[in-house]
Design a protein that fits this description.
three-stranded parallel beta sheet, 365 residues, 3 strands, mainly alpha
Length: 365
């Protein structure tokens, strides 16, 4: 681990307090949306939070965006107590999954794994185009849901754009040539993913981080135990493309390290699951070079965050499995092992299509 990565990790893990500041913003938006559908009220709360939360670029950072945190003062306001009524918005597929026990909670937050591959492929604007197309069809039953999605996506884009503006402004006044170049790169990455799809690993990690951060900003004052899914699978194409373009493996490993540092910035209980390995829909092994890189990085960082999960199956590459076992033997609790035969079999028994079980992941703790 480089000295820079070590400094950033130490700073991340020394943060104290919570994101209590969101309470006032959420309460104001909640009061202003009295009488509106719950899903629209939630969207407006997140919109207000993303408008008010400060854009921050820490010293030496290459990936930006931070959940504000501070000790809770005695006069801190109370946030709105709102439990959303979302039963009417459930699809029949969701209802079948709940009846089968694939998931059981009707209002639970956290323990979710969004479709990161979809977002990385389409970008915020691409997903927004899909939402607008659905709204244009005049689906009256779900009109509020589509409107809420549009509000949320536009708010997310604006939040990312503010970081691009900040990076541009800091670059313009930065006297250190090397840091000025980094700030320019940060601005370019944020500008790209504010609307478009990422093209490089830097841009992909930046969009992934903003997406994860925004989930947590919406959820509450800490992380909400959201999961990152099959990290080595949906980022592999960016990793391989950058290597082919001449980037060094060490440089890319450092970038992934910066992303993992961001995951360590949250305070309080942290359950941030990240999955590597596993099999595809045809039962073939999915291990790639990024899978190995994740093991290497965890051996260097030796932190409980992210919670690294290895999906095992009988065709798993022996060298990779050996590395994972060696890491586990170091004695700091990483990684956890999950068996594909049992996990995928349980999902199939619950009625999930065999092809879909290929992406089964631990969703939280």
């Amino acid at each position: 681990m480089t000295s820079r990565l070590q400094r950033l990790l130490e700073r991340a893990r020394s943060r104290e307090g919570t994101f209590w500041q969101r309470r006032g913003w959420a309460a104001a938006a909640f009061a202003e949306t009295e009488g509106q559908p719950a899903v629209l009220r939630q969207a407006r709360i997140l919109e207000r939070i993303l408008q008010e939360a400060p854009a921050v670029i820490g010293a030496e950072e290459l990936l930006v965006g931070t959940q504000p945190c501070a000790p809770i003062p005695a006069e801190a306001p109370a946030g709105p107590a709102m439990v959303p009524d979302i039963e009417a918005l459930r699809s029949e597929e969701q209802r079948r999954a709940m009846r089968a026990g694939v998931f059981t909670s009707s209002i639970k937050t956290g323990h979710l794994t969004p479709d990161y591959p979809r977002l990385l492929g389409a970008g915020i604007e691409g997903v927004l185009d899909e939402v607008q197309a659905r709204r244009a069809r005049g689906d009256a039953e779900h009109a509020a849901l589509w409107e809420a999605m549009e509000i949320t996506l536009r708010a997310a884009s604006g939040f990312v754009s503010r970081h691009a503006d900040l990076a541009d402004g800091e670059a313009a006044t930065c006297e250190d040539v090397a840091r000025r170049e980094e700030l320019t790169a940060i601005a370019g990455a944020c500008r790209q993913v504010a609307t478009g799809a990422p093209r490089t690993l830097h841009e992909a990690l930046q969009l992934l981080w903003f997406t994860y951060l925004i989930q947590c900003l919406e959820n509450g004052e800490s992380t909400g135990a959201f999961a990152l899914g099959r990290f080595d699978q949906y980022l592999c194409r960016f990793w391989e493309a950058d290597l082919a373009a001449g980037k060094s493996r060490e440089e890319l490993l450092e970038l992934v390290g910066y992303f993992w540092v961001k995951l360590n910035e949250f305070t309080g209980l942290q359950v941030l699951n990240l999955t590597i390995g596993g099999s595809d829909a045809g039962g073939r092994d999915c291990v790639n070079d990024l899978s190995y890189a994740c093991l290497e990085l965890m051996a260097q960082m030796r932190t409980p965050v992210p919670s690294l999960s290895v999906r095992w199956h009988e065709r798993l590459e022996p060298a990779f499995f050996g590395r994972a076992v060696e890491l586990s033997a170091m004695g700091f609790g990483q990684p956890a092992f999950y068996g594909d035969p049992a996990a995928r079999g349980a999902m199939e028994a619950a009625g999930v299509a065999s092809a879909d079980t290929a992406d089964v992941v631990p969703g939280g703790c």
